[in-house]
Amino acid sequence: MKVKKAIIPAAGLGTRFLPATKSLPKEMLPIVDIPAIQLIVEEAARSGIEEILIITNSNKQAIENHFDINYELESRLRDANKQAEEKMIRDIAEMSNVLYIRQKEPKGLGHAISCAKAFVGNEPFAVLLGDDIVVNETKPALKQLIEAFDEKQASILGVQRVAKKDVSKYGIVKTIDSYSKNNKLYEIDNIVEKPNQTEAPSDLAVLGRYVLTAEIFEILEHQKPGKNNEIQLTDAIATLLNKEAVYAYEFSGKRYDIGDKFGYLKANIDFALNRDDIQVQLYEYLKEIIK
Ligand code: G1P
User: Fold this and answer.
1) Of the residues 26, 40, 127, 169, which should be mutated to test ligand 1's pocket, given the most ligand atoms within 8 Å of the CB?
2) 188 vs 190: CA distance, rounded Å
3) Is the dihedral of CA 189, 203, 145, 113 positive or negative?
């Protein structure tokens, strides 16, 4: 089986970015001038995904407009002889086949994923979380996971090591095989959502990229609320482990937690320093204020 579909949950309230997110979806906050969710859709498209379902809520129309054609803007840009800009906004609408469904109540990530059951059917599928931006110019993080899926035909969770003090922010996995420098793919023994430092089984954290088998939907249907009284995807994966093998893949790439204010600023600085149009100016400015 091949992974052709992806889910991007985008129904969160964005409370950590208020007041910006009072009326603007947090997924539309830009990294320099590109909405974060566009970077996520680009990663999915570069990974070979053909259809994307974005899980939204009533406050997220801006996302749908962003991936739609905007004839009026295109025509104004054409009249103003701005062909590059016209092409740029048309390319966004043609980037991928994007569909939407609303999560009617904020009942957690697991519940959001369960809203995609009809879209996914019986195929394996990918999940990309918008708070995690991963930069890898040669091979996107999701593509790395999909290749691991092609090899194992089993669910694959994208992981990286995190500092011990940060384990309580993530789903943490315990692997069956012990760590070795040359290995990236590990069979998972157990997974826990946001354990405290003393209970964490390792420092391998799930960082917003998953390839899952469709078996997860049946489990999610019966999943009781867990951490923070939300239906947790992590808890459903823990149950999936009793039925089939699940693997962790230590993906390569620089990852930014843009759900965190400092992570968001770091992403903006690094992306800007990589951009031909502003890197020199920004670099000079940073040197000046550090003096
Ligand atoms: C979610 C998941 C968690 C995962 C994290 C990755 O948590 O529940 O298992 O490690 O994303 O960023 P959230 O950050 O949405 O609270």
Assistant:
1) 169
2) 6
3) positive
Question: Is 207's C-beta closer than 6 angstroms to any atom of ligand 1?
Answer: yes
Query: CA-CA distance, 156 to 1, in Å (whole number)?
Result: 14
How many Å lie between the centroid of ligand 1 and the Cα of residue 170?
5
Q: Which two tokens stand for residue 275?
A: 């951009």
The residue whose CA is least distant from atom 1 of ligand 1 is 170
Whether the predicted model's global pTM rises above the 0.90 cut: yes
pLDDT, tens only, 204-236: 999 999 999 999 999 999 999 999 999 999 999
Place of tokens 């009026």: 72
| Residue 252 in this model has a pLDDT that exceeds 90 | yes
Chain centre distance of CA 157: 12
Q: Is 108 in the pocket of ligand 1 (CB under 6 A)?
A: no
Q: What one-character DSSP code corresponds to residue 138?
A: S
Separation CA 263–CA 266 (nearest Å): 5
Please, are residues 105 and 212 in contact by the beta-carbon 8 Å criterion? Answer: no
Q: With the C-alpha atoms ordered 158, 101, 67, 4, is the resulting torsion angle positive or negative?
A: positive
pLDDT value, residue 180: 80
**Residue 190, token pair as written in the block:** 């157990």
**Residue 193 beta carbon below 6 angstroms from any ligand 1 atom:** yes
